[in-house]
Design brief:
The chain is an alpha/beta fold. It contains eleven helices and 30 strands. The strands form seven sheets. It has an eight-stranded parallel β-sheet with strand order 10-11-14-17-18-19-20-21, with helices on one face. It has a six-stranded antiparallel β-sheet with strand order 22-24-25-30-27-28. Strands 3, 4, 6, 7 and 8 form a five-stranded antiparallel β-sheet that branches. The N terminus is likely disordered.
Length: 615
């Protein structure tokens, strides 16, 4: 327990005044130029010249060249702007002409529209359209940053102490802990972010005004026993500190009010930090991230203003840094990529520490905030803040069937590949369907956010991250060409340091959620052209697939014709099918030039992983 009187600091006297100015260097941008619209099979493929300083691009479409041009909604339910070209419009009718314009996206919203381009999709033929992936196995390698496994989301950590029967009769605490172990061991996850550090079961206020962290101790002891690190999300507000103790969210009634006494909020953040150091050690706590609140730009999560959030952030970060400057603190932990520029501007204007910016998006690849963080570093002379997407996923909607679908698997790979160059972390939300925000699951496949079901069966999204984690060695270039290249069909390739193995991960997916069940017109035949192999050497090939017929646990459940929850026999069959089989393809011999051609069928949606090992 920490004494409130220790190291008392007047937090109020140290915070800056509200500011409505905006970080310079990311303002008005020109419209993109060189827009092209190339008709393909089941799609129109758009290219344009990137604009320096753009965070992303908003694609517009019209039925007439004269407009009106409206933003193209791929039904992801969140931010519509994409981070970079190319873009595959699959919301098309073959043979129909469409007109396109593109605007840059910055902190102030969409800019001016580009000149128009016109395209028309083709109908599917008798065989799938062709795509080629070209690799040079002898090319120099570069690092493949693990943006996908630095962090993952989870329901509040106090589920580790849950002692009531769970959904489908499950043991919530046991399965939750097992899920964390699975993502640690099979995906390589290193840290976990969860809401509710200050829930009533973890933190309370004694009669003398001191904070009781004994509930948090039990929760963190169990969490840290997993070998993972917590992301300490400073939420939600203890009842005794809340200005409005009835302003709540979720089924577990988390308090999302402003504090009635800002001094006490600072005391809470300081005392928490001291307590964690006392229990777990200063060096350990210095290796954790502290994130201030969750999605304060949504009224459902915050009854204050943006300036109130800046005050909340500043009081918190100054309180934590007063204990240990090394602890990394950031925010705004916002929904829909909002408020990032405003927080950076507040920190610039008032000399407030910020080690990372954090935000969330769903149904799309993450935007590129590097122009904003670089402008902050240039303006302040401070290190550039890291960019942490602390929530990301295929949909922001609870109980949406896309979460259980194969569609979501190539979506995950598209987002992660896009994030490799622009972010430090893209944390999938969440690990497990043991999740109670808007109510517990009512059946096994209910469209839960989890990578793992209740019972810890692996969904297709899980296998996408697993395959990313199987890529061995350094990254080599993978040049994709053909019908839908780099927007529908994408690839990542790696080579072991000793050149004995080559891994190729290729996928076929679209952002367009009207195609959640796939589309025959988007199926592709992929030729993988590999140069730079050892001439005359024999190579063995192992293949793994994720599609409607492979590694699709929901399809197995549908074949069992089950009800809401499996019986014992059905559980046995599901667990037997909960795997990603490896198929041995015929070996090949590299020709005299060290080259080989491999041809694979790649349905939409679908993933193919190939490992070539020299005999």
């Amino acid at each position: 327990m920490t004494d409130k009187s220790a190291a008392h600091i007047d937090w109020e006297s140290r915070i800056g005044k509200p500011s409505d100015t905006r970080l310079t260097g990311v303002g008005e941008l020109p419209a993109p130029d060189r827009l092209t619209a190339q008709g393909g099979t089941g799609l129109v493929l758009l290219h344009w010249a990137p604009v320096e300083g753009a965070l992303g691009y908003l694609v517009h479409r019209a039925d007439s060249v004269d407009g009106p041009y409206e933003p193209l909604d791929h039904l992801g339910g969140d931010v519509l702007a994409v981070p970079h070209p190319p873009y595959a419009d699959t919301l098309v009718t073959p043979g129909r002409t469409y007109h396109y314009k593109v605007a840059t996206w910055s902190d102030s919203g969409a800019g001016e529209l580009s000149e128009a381009a016109t395209g028309r999709a083709r109908a599917a033929g008798a065989t799938p359209a062709a795509v080629t992936v070209a690799l040079d196995a002898s090319a120099p390698t570069s690092e493949l940053p693990g943006v996908w496994n630095r962090m993952i989301g989870a329901e509040h950590f106090s589920l580790l102490t849950w002692d009531k029967p769970g959904a489908g009769g499950s043991d919530v605490a046991l399965e939750y802990a097992q899920a964390l172990g699975i993502v640690r061991d099979e995906i390589g996850v290193r840290s976990v972010r969860a809401h509710g550090t200050f829930l009533p079961e973890t933190v309370s206020v004694r009669a003398d005004g001191t904070f009781d962290f004994s509930g948090l101790d039990e929760v963190y002891d169990r969490f840290l026993a997993t070998g993972l690190k917590p992301v300490v999300e400073l939420s939600f507000m203890p009842r005794e500190l809340a200005a409005d103790p009835e302003y709540t969210v979720f089924d577990y009634r988390a308090l999302v009010s402003t504090p009635r006494d800002w001094q006490r909020w600072g005391d809470l953040c300081r005392d928490l930090t001291l307590h964690l150091q006392e229990r777990y050690g200063k060096e350990e706590v210095a290796s954790w991230e502290f994130e201030v609140w969750n999605e304060a730009n949504l009224e459902v999560f915050w009854n204050g203003t943006q300036d109130d959030y800046h005050r909340l952030y500043e009081v918190a970060v100054r309180a934590i840094k007063a204990v240990d400057e090394r602890i990394r603190v950031g925010g705004p932990s916002s929904a829909a990529a909002g408020w990032v520029g405003a927080l950076l501007e507040h920190c610039r204007t008032h000399d407030v520490p910020v080690d990372f910016v954090s935000t969330h998006t769903y149904g799309n690849a993450p935007l590129d905030f590097r122009p904003m963080t670089r402008a902050f570093a240039e303006a302040t002379g401070r290190p550039e803040p890291e960019i942490l997407w602390t929530e990301w996923g295929v949909t922001p909607t609870h109980f949406h069937r896309v979460s259980d679908s194969v569609f979501a698997a190539p979506f995950v790979l598209r987002g992660m590949k896009s994030a490799l160059a622009s972010t430090d972390c893209l944390a999938y939300w969440v690990a497990s369907d043991q999740f109670e925000e808007l109510g517990w699951p009512n059946r096994l496949f209910h469209g839960g956010f989890g990578l793992l079901t209740v019972g810890n069966l692996r969904k297709p999204r899980f296998w996408a991250l697993y395959l990313l984690s199987q890529l061995a060695g350094g990254r080599i270039p993978a040049a994709v060409s053909g019908d839908g290249a780099d927007a529908l069909v994408e690839a990542i390739a790696t080579r072991a340091e000793d050149t004995s193995t080559l891994d190729v991960l290729v996928w076929n997916g679209t952002l367009d959620q009207s195609k959640v069940d796939g589309a025959r017109s988007l199926d592709r035949t992929v030729t993988i052209h590999i140069d730079g192999l050892q001439p005359g050497a024999t190579y063995h090939v192992v293949s793994r697939r994720v599609d409607e017929e492979h590694a699709n646990i929901q399809a197995v459940w549908n074949e069992l014709d089950g009800g809401d929850w499996p019986d014992a026999q059905q559980w046995e069959k599901l667990r037997a099918a909960d795997r990603l089989p490896a198929d041995q393809l015929p070996p090949f011999i590299a020709n005299a030039d060290g080259a080989v051609l491999l041809s694979i069928d790649l349905p939409n949606p679908g993933i193919r992983f190939l490992r070539l090992a020299r005999a």
